[in-house]
Amino acid sequence: MVNNYSNVPDETREKVRSVIEKYNYVPHASARTLAGFQNKIIGLFMIDRKSDTAGKKVSMSTYFSPFMSGVIDEANKNGYYVLAYAVNKPSDYSNIKEIFFNQTISGGIFIGQQSDDANIRQIIKSGYKVVFVDKDIELESDSSSKSLIVNADNVDGAYKATKYLIQLGHTSIAHIAGYMKQLSTIERIEGYKKALLEAGIPFNHDLVIKGNFMQDGGYFATMKLFQKEKPTAIFYASDSMAVGGIQAAQELGLKVPEDLSIIGFDDIEISSYLNPPLTTIRMDFSEMASISVNSLVSSIESDSGFSAHYIVPVELVERKSCLKLSK
Amino acid sequence: MVNNYSNVPDETREKVRSVIEKYNYVPHASARTLAGFQNKIIGLFMIDRKSDTAGKKVSMSTYFSPFMSGVIDEANKNGYYVLAYAVNKPSDYSNIKEIFFNQTISGGIFIGQQSDDANIRQIIKSGYKVVFVDKDIELESDSSSKSLIVNADNVDGAYKATKYLIQLGHTSIAHIAGYMKQLSTIERIEGYKKALLEAGIPFNHDLVIKGNFMQDGGYFATMKLFQKEKPTAIFYASDSMAVGGIQAAQELGLKVPEDLSIIGFDDIEISSYLNPPLTTIRMDFSEMASISVNSLVSSIESDSGFSAHYIVPVELVERKSCLKLSK
DNA sequence: CTGAAAGCGCTTACAG
DNA sequence: CTGAAAGCGCTTACAG
Questions:
Q1: To pair with B125 at 20 to 30 A between CA atoms, which of A104, B21, B95, B106?
Q2: Chain A contacts of B86, Cβ < 8 Å?
């Protein structure tokens, strides 16, 4: 074994070191793991929402990239490596279970929509360390489970977005929502209602249209919305949907922001390049990544459970897609 | 050992299978690797070019995301997992060497600019399987080395871009280049010159400005260019630089494409959302990813070398940032 | 304090 | 054909 015990004479240490250097010795990772050393790999599982509607398939959600980048950086800082996995079919879950059980990874981070899969439940029950980002359902808090949830402050974000529109003088504000079974969808609707209520604007059911978080969903929901209603502003539950919304508005002959104010949620990379640049609610992906990785790593190294629920704050970023109503 | 030998009675097999099922048995990955089984992990090393000029640091090159997505998908199809690593400081190379030598991974893919690092050379010399995408320098073909290079057809892409501009009637065509020490930069300049030569347009040295492949580089190079020259069209060596170019043109009071035609290279995600949507040369990232992964996997599994040099074709995608010169 | 032995959980080559 | 043993390269607990 090659450790740095403090009691070894310097000369010997130096000799050993030089031999190591010379032969390029590196301890065999699998041997160490097998002998009880925790391996330094965590899994990052990105649950992908594919959409073929636009012709080309979207193969990795737009917001995975900055989050992943944050996870990798933070993991590296902690001496960990990240195994990246894109989940896009149900059978992937059994592969994931396998790499937990076969000790390829010491823990994992899930991001994106989760179907409540049996394999995942088994992983949690078995005491593997897991963090969920943007989780759709609450985990039952089992004493043996070691998992944690990190979410953006969806309610507050939606509240801020809607309130911003209200302050601009809008009273007819529509909302294009995400997947109905996802927690963030529910929470964003909640924030939207809260701002309306506070301003004394009656909630109109017809002004809320179901979308899917993706561009095509934003497009179709907007088209559907304008068949019956004529809002002056729309709050989209994701920037991707807002992109589809801008497209729809254009086809409808509506100028953004002159005829229609649009605000999104996420602040993905393309948002600032849009025409007009999109006003939106920024999620701090690198903050979420840091929390996820650091919690996971400390849980792995102390072998202790964790069951906190982090809510990461969110902020409004003002660009050019919303206009003050002048009347 | 739990294998599927053909000679085991069905009944026994079934019994074993059910026990496995019941106890959720999964073979220990490290034990298998230690006992000689190839592990099923490949490394994906993304050499990051950071830029802080724009205020926020760019933490992962825009084109890594689609490439990585392709790598993960293709690897998964082959039963492999991918360990993703973002290289952003020199010391990272020694970590990379370590995970090759300690057998954490069975091979690796490098993408982005490579400094000719000693650790990398050592990895190659030691016979580890490695593929380089968009490699800047030629590998010496050592008999023991097992590495391959996958590049886009840079010469042809630049040729197509420049020729397209020429066909639109432009004769004063500038080129904003990438990092000077990178192969793709050299090749793109070559394609640019080739098209000019073919059309009988004299090459003007002042029309070629050095950039850095990033948005800020495109911006500053464009500003610099217009201090002395007044081209009617610019071919940027990357879409990111074209984004900076559109910005610069705007500040210079030049309308794109009316006053200035712009064409990029890469076809990154934001390009089609730009104002105007960017005409560019598309690199087929998923094709490059497939070639990389499949070559690597077959090299790992046959333990054979490979030293091909793939050139992946490239195509023009016409959008709205170029205009026919009407005079 | 130190050095030799046992053991981690597999695979593979080898006796029976 | 089958079952017991050796060995992969480490770490850790244990004799000396």
A1: A104
A2: 69, 72-73, 76
For strand D, is any atom closer than 7 Å to the CB of A29?
Answer: no
The least confident of A6-15, B69-78, B277-286 is: A6-15
| Residues in chain B closer than 8 A to A126 (CB atoms) | 24
Fold held by A13-152+285-313: Rossmann fold (3.40.50)
Q: Which residues pair with B175 in a beta bridge?
A: B208, B235
3-state secondary structure of B278: coil
Measured between alpha carbons, how far is B22 from B33 in angstroms, rounded to an integer? 25
pTM of the model: 0.91
A154-283 maps to which CATH number? 3.40.50.2300
Chain C, protein-covered positions (CB within 7 A): 1-2, 7-12
Six-digit token string for A156: 């507050």
Hey, is the C-beta of B54 within 8 angstroms of any chain A C-beta? no
Q: Are A13-152+285-313 and A154-283 equal in CATH topology?
A: yes
Distance CA A77, CA A63 (A): 22
Residue of B124 and B231 predicted with greater confidence? B231
How do residues A158-204 score in pLDDT, each as one tens digit? 999 999 999 999 999 999 999 887 889 999 999 999 999 999 999 99
Asked if A32 and A2 touch (Cβ cutoff 8 Å), the reply is no
**Would the CB atoms of B269 and A270 count as touching at under 8 Å?**
yes
Provide the residue ranges of all domains of chain A, joining segments of one domain with +. Answer: 13-152+285-313, 154-283
Q: What's the pLDDT tens digit per position in A297-316?
A: 999 988 888 878 899 999 99
